[in-house]
Amino acid sequence: MSKILYLSDCYLKEWDAAVAKDNGKYIVLDQTAFYPNSGGQPCDTGTMKTENGNEYKVVYVGKFSGDVSHEVDNGGLKAGDKVHCRIDWDRRYKLMRMHTAAHVFSRVIFDETGAVTSGNQLDLDKSRIDFTLENLDKGKIKEWEKKANEIIAGGRNLKISFYPREEAFKIPDFIRTSKLLVPEDLKTIRIVEIEGLDQQACGGTHLKNISEIGKIEVLKVENKGKNNRRIYFRLIQ
Fold it and tell me: Cα dist. 120→78, 103, 129, 130, 202 in Å?
């Protein structure tokens, strides 16, 4: 299996790697910081450059049969090739801001209503959060937005830790989240903590401090069934 570099360092922009497996345009590296499409977060894109100067664009990254597979725009890479990898940082950083914003906003929604997050989908222009709530007072949405932005403006550091599954499920904040989002076969759980505010099981990429988010702006709210509500938001600044 590849060594997954983004799990401990979300700000790593470039690194050296070797091709471990090749299947035409689908490449597995011995180590990677490219994020694969999963958990509601879109994949990274970027480039791989060989020692002789050939450059390949990384157009999609996914996880298949335990491997992080990188789709490149042309064939030619072979097992054993050394490559220098570079992430499209503007794209990654925007998604990091979106993902951390979703954690903050989900916490505000939980504190105000007791609703737990049941899903999310991040994107560059707007993102959404699904949460379990039977009755939603839409008049409160702007209040939640204001509270989230006040918390963001105050700035809080993020910390990433790894726990055995049984220990993670003893964390009070973790228990409040939807356990359906945590795969049953996951033995070690990565916890993203916003200091003094929130702890979530999460495999995604995040900021070092929530002040980097900017501001959240709610775009619309939808009913997606009896007990499911959906909020769309974007980032400004």
Answer: 36, 10, 4, 6, 12
Residue holding tokens 């033995």?
A: 187
Rg (CA), the chain: 19
- Using the predicted structure, report yes or no on whether residue 180 has a pLDDT greater than 80: no
Write the CATH number of the domain with boundaries 3-87. Answer: 2.40.30.130
Fold observed for domain 92-236: Threonyl-tRNA Synthetase; Chain A, domain 2 (3.30.980)
List alpha helices for the chain, DSSP H: 89-113, 141-154, 165-168, 172-175
- Sorted by where each begins, the domain ranges of the chain are 3-87, 92-236
Q: Which residue has the tokens 């799990």?
A: 7
pTM of the model: 0.94
H or E element that contains 106: helix 89-113
Is the separation of the CB atoms in 131 and 106 below 8 Å? yes
pLDDT tens digits for 196-217?
A: 999 988 999 999 999 999 999 9
